[in-house]
Each structure stands twice: as C-alpha cells, then as structure tokens.
Amino acid sequence: MEVLFWMKMLLRYRGYTKGPDGMLRIVPEEAEIVRKIFDLYVQENGVRKIEKYLEA
C-alpha cells in the first residue's frame, strides 16, 4: 500500500520522540491520534475527510 507523502511527514514528527540513546520512543498521547489517522486511511477515507475529522 502506498503511503501518502503527508502521512510520512506526520508519522515522522507525531507519535514518536528520540530517546537519549537515539532510538525512537512512542509518545502515548500522540501515538493515539496517529493510530486513528491510520485507521481512517485504511478504511479508504480521503485526506479531506480525515482533515475534517481532526478539526471536529
């Protein structure tokens, strides 16, 4: 499945942080919304529909 560019950028900055050892660590509060965005995308929702969901 092709991942949209904006989703790659979102996942790079949301849901993770770098630990002192340089490894990525999950930020639970942010990871929850990243999972929701992914679920909406997998359910074939478009970018605009996901955007409206997030703004609601």
From TrEMBL:
Pfam families: Recombinase. Coiled coil: none annotated. GO terms for molecular function: DNA binding; DNA strand exchange activity. Residues 28-55 form the Recombinase domain. This is Recombinase domain-containing protein. It comes from Anaerotruncus massiliensis. The lineage of its organism: Bacteria, Bacillati, Bacillota, Clostridia, Eubacteriales.
